[in-house]
Amino acid sequence: MMSKKQTVFNLLFLVIVFGLTMYLVFRGKDIGDIIRTAREADGRYLLLSLVCVVFFILGESVIIFYMMKTLGASVKMTHCALYSFVGFFFSCITPSASGGQPMQIFYMKKDKLPIPVTTLVLMIVTITYKAVLVVIGVLICFLGGDFLRGYLGDYMWVFYLGVGLNVFCVTFMMILVFAPGLAKWIMVKGLKIIEHVRILKPKKARLEKLEASMDQYHATAAFWASHKRIILNVFIITFVQRCILFTVTYWVYRALGLHEYGILTVTILQAVISVSVDMLPLPGGMGISETLYMVMFVPVFGPLLLPSMLLSRGISYYGQMLISALMTCVAHLTIGRKNEEIQRM
Question: Tell me: the pLDDT tens digits for 242-254?
Answer without folding.
Answer: 999 999 999 999 9
